[in-house]
Amino acid sequence: MMTTTTPVTLELTGASGRKYTFHVYDLGTTFKPVGGVYAMTRAIPNATGGSNHSILYVGQTGDLSERFDNHHKEDCFTRRGANRHCAMVEQNEQARLAIEQDLIAAYNPPCNG
Prior knowledge:
GIY-YIG endonuclease; about 20% helix; alpha+beta
């Protein structure tokens, strides 16, 4: 018997109006060594069975598998109750930087300051 599940995703909208789809993972998830943009969030269950996410930090990296080891903003995430990593794969560094800035401009995450 085969069981299929739909991965949990989160759509974030940048200041530009562009929409970005992120996959949502629990803290401690091990990632493959690929480039990507990520958001650290605090997810709170809502009445519809989903979650509402507070965006705590947005960043980008050339290697998602290493980025969260001793992250320089980990204290900020912990204090604010981070419980999810949201990530989208993007290999192009210029594109990652543009997406990161677009999302920071839209959400003004407290740990990016």
